[in-house]
């Protein structure tokens, strides 16, 4: 029997409408009557039309930076308890050893490898951020295509194109439903991520247009993650599962598994079902000219973004004005109300609690001149110098300062004072991390996981991504003992 | 580093609230302020407390009937093109040969086996139906636990308890959000199914209470399926993926993978995010005394339920009044408007189109005395005797007849007439299929897939489920060439 969609479509309606005697009209009327454009088809056509050659230079560059930042956080998170647990749980069911994990020695089939990479790269909440939607774009996409690239050789140019296409797909779909979809409770990285992974893998597999439409449809059928799980291992589960779900969708579609022709835009499709807002133009306008990848940002500090300006200011005063912690009498901060609401812990006891203490943020920046994962460790928050200094931090809610800004004045015991006003913190779209800063972050994350020489080699391969003939080499170079 | 949920919970809020500067209060106010009971914890405690000994006799019996019906449809659908495609796509990534599929020779790891069984058992839309929610209960649950039972021996009593617990879990959660959740566009079998599979597998794995709470949380993070995909292979994908997602959730939770403590009821949890209706009492009231399994129904005919009364009446008149098709002058049907709206095709050309033709339904019942998959084949709709008779079928919309009823009068050329009024069609809750009718359905579905003796043996094992020491034997007895 062949599955012709048109001929079967009523079967469901029949089987479903009858039992509850739900009147189709009644159900329809509950839905907006807006006629949506064929979004899924338009997107699929663009996905298939894109190529490395069509990517603007700045998009290629941001794609490479996104990849390098992602590899760094994937290495850094590779031995977190969350990954250890998932590896132990899934090993007995894994297929052929098709792909490895950064920083680890085990090998898995590509479905499990994609999941585990996604978990590892998000566990520190230190991965990239598309601020327009709060999607962490690289995780779901890179986890899926790097796993695939370890099974079937993929050139650096094709890989970079697939990465950009995947990021574009998930972020544009996210734009169409944000903020309503996110405010409702969905973890948008996990719900939009499968589209990005399916698009990117499907692109590498050379899907036909109908197959790509179905791959997006099967991805739409597998949204992942609710905000209630934030703070548990379940949060990093979401980008991981988004990666494996998108890969699963593409693998099935490639063999002829069918879906609807319009799963993104249909009345009973993804956007209308999962969100109260649907802005189709965010998905279809400017495809190939406007790139969401250019809006991707990288966290310089291992904490929430409201603390970033304070750390930025503290590091500047320490390094540029040569201020010594022991000479500091007082640290005045002018901040937005949200800063104290979210990070008002005055006496954190653990590294994790330190992530919610603007007092610790100011102190650690002035003492160590950094804000990486090490500065949010139990060791750091209990360092006597840090404990002493944070008690001298005085944040004051001040009109005219937004949550992404700070005004810091450090007064020394001898009466001298030093001042910084941060309009845009390092890591923002306006003041992106430099390549050197991304390298420092990568090196810091890899320290203790991979030997320095190996980490440096992997980092260099990331920078030369477009020149690679087989991207699988990056993955192989980044495993434990390589 | 340990992941303490409380200490981390703000991290997400911090990382997430800041970028968009979303005011938490603003977001909260968008949500109902109703204080929900600890639904997830209450449900987990009941799941763990249930045992075969605590199940009422009628619940045990319905559990066995649900299992037998599910095995029949799984065998019947095992060689559908949809399953062939999925098997071909997933074989290269499958793990150890831990489990087989009914009617087939291939073996897979239990994750892939659970998915494929779920697909096979739903492809004909001929599986069981919990009419209160339109959930097809057995697919997601039985697919997961039978795969698991092929890896770790499970007794028939424990398996039956897990099956009932899984059905109870998914149907109660479905009751809490139905109909709003379904009307919005979700395929409720795929969105609630993961809870049932996680509960049932977790039960067999002996999870602790916190682990069960987390398994339900990871299941909540993986809803599957949108109604837009109905009519494509994607529809049967949904119960399959629900089975593997629930299994995946339980496997991870068993090793210590954490989630939230209240993923079902929390403000940013499953029910509040995925539905505009949340009736917590549907989940928590009468646990252990009221069983949704008793509301499970089995389709006697391979088509939507609005055509069932007509087929029922036609079969009765043919068999009990010994009416021969060639003697029939006219067939009058008094029907509900929905019947013509959904099944008004007067001249179907394919078996699938036949599923939307009340004319074909009446004709095939009177000609062949049945309404199985074979009666909805291309052969059946093009049988000259059927084509001739359906042209004599005259349905008339009649007040006082609901969509689950029909009034049929067959008038012969010699003037004699025979009448049946069906208030409750066979297969309804009021007039359930008898064990003999379930056996006939099973035998019909297995014909052409398994040798008659083998099918009979598998069916007998299903009936004796509670006496089995290793339920994996049922699966092994049902594979191709066993």
From TrEMBL, chains A, B:
<comment type="similarity">
    <text>Belongs to the PrpD family.</text>
</comment>
<dbReference type="InterPro" id="IPR045336">
    <property type="entry name" value="MmgE_PrpD_N"/>
</dbReference>
<dbReference type="Pfam" id="PF03972">
    <property type="entry name" value="MmgE_PrpD_N"/>
</dbReference>
<dbReference type="GO" id="GO:0016829">
    <property type="term" value="F:lyase activity"/>
</dbReference>
<dbReference type="InterPro" id="IPR042188">
    <property type="entry name" value="MmgE/PrpD_sf_2"/>
</dbReference>
<feature type="domain" description="MmgE/PrpD N-terminal">
    <location>
        <begin position="43"/>
        <end position="281"/>
    </location>
</feature>
<feature type="domain" description="MmgE/PrpD C-terminal">
    <location>
        <begin position="301"/>
        <end position="464"/>
    </location>
</feature>
<dbReference type="InterPro" id="IPR036148">
    <property type="entry name" value="MmgE/PrpD_sf"/>
</dbReference>
<dbReference type="InterPro" id="IPR005656">
    <property type="entry name" value="MmgE_PrpD"/>
</dbReference>
<dbReference type="InterPro" id="IPR006311">
    <property type="entry name" value="TAT_signal"/>
</dbReference>
<feature type="signal peptide">
    <location>
        <begin position="1"/>
        <end position="17"/>
    </location>
</feature>
<dbReference type="InterPro" id="IPR042183">
    <property type="entry name" value="MmgE/PrpD_sf_1"/>
</dbReference>
<keyword id="KW-0732">Signal</keyword>
<protein>
    <submittedName>
        <fullName>2-methylcitrate dehydratase PrpD</fullName>
    </submittedName>
</protein>
<dbReference type="Pfam" id="PF19305">
    <property type="entry name" value="MmgE_PrpD_C"/>
</dbReference>
<dbReference type="InterPro" id="IPR045337">
    <property type="entry name" value="MmgE_PrpD_C"/>
</dbReference>
């Amino acid at each position: 029997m062949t599955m012709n969609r048109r001929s079967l479509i009523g079967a469901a309606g029949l089987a479903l409408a009858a039992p509850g005697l739900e009147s189709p009209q009644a159900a329809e009327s509950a839905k907006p009557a807006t006629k949506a454009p064929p979004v899924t088809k338009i997107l699929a056509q663009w996905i298939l039309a894109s190529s490395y050659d069509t990517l603007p230079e700045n998009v290629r560059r941001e794609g490479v930076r996104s990849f390098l930042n992602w590899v760094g956080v994937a290495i850094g998170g590779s031995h977190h308890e969350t990954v250890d647990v998932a590896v132990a749980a899934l090993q007995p069911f894994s297929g052929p050893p098709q792909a490895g994990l950064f920083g680890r020695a085990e090998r898995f089939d590509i479905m499990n490898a994609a999941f585990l990479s996604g978990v590892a790269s998000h566990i520190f909440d230190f991965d990239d951020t598309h601020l327009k939607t709060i999607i962490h774009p690289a995780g779901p996409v890179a986890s899926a295509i790097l796993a695939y690239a370890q099974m079937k050789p993929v050139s650096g140019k094709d890989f970079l194109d697939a990465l950009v296409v995947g990021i574009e797909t998930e972020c544009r779909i996210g734009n169409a439903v944000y903020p309503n979809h996110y405010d409702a409770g969905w973890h948008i990285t996990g719900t939009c991520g499968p589209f990005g992974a399916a698009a990117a893998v499907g692109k590498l597999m050379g899907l036909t247009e109908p197959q790509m439409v179905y791959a997006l449809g099967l991805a739409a059928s597998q949204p992942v993650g609710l905000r209630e799980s934030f703070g548990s291992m379940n949060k990093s589960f979401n980008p991981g599962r988004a990666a494996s779900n998108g890969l699963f969708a593409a693998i099935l579609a490639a063999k002829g598994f069918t879906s609807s022709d319009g799963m993104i835009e249909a009345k009973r499709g993804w956007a209308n079902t999962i969100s109260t807002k649907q802005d189709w133009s965010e998905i279809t306008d400017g495809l190939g000219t406007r790139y969401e990848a250019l809006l991707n940002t990288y966290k310089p500090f291992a904490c929430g973004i409201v603390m970033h300006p304070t750390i930025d200011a503290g590091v500047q005063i320490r390094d540029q004005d040569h201020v010594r912690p022991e000479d500091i009498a007082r640290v005045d901060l002018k901040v937005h109300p949200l800063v104290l609401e979210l990070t008002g812990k005055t006496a954190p006891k653990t590294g994790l609690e330190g992530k919610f203490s603007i007092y610790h943020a100011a102190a650690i920046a002035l003492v160590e001149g950094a804000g990486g994962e090490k500065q949010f460790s139990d060791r750091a928050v209990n360092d006597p110098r840090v404990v002493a200094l944070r008690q001298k931090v005085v944040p004051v809610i001040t009109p005219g300062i937004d949550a992404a800004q700070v005004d810091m004045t450090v007064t020394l015991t001898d009466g001298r004072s030093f001042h910084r006003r941060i309009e845009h913190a390092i890591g923002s779209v306006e003041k992106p991390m430099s390549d050197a800063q991304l390298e420092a972050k990568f090196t810091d994350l890899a320290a203790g996981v991979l030997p320095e020489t190996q980490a440096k080699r992997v980092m260099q391969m990331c920078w030369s991504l477009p020149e690679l003939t087989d991207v699988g080499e990056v993955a192989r170079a980044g495993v434990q003992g390589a």
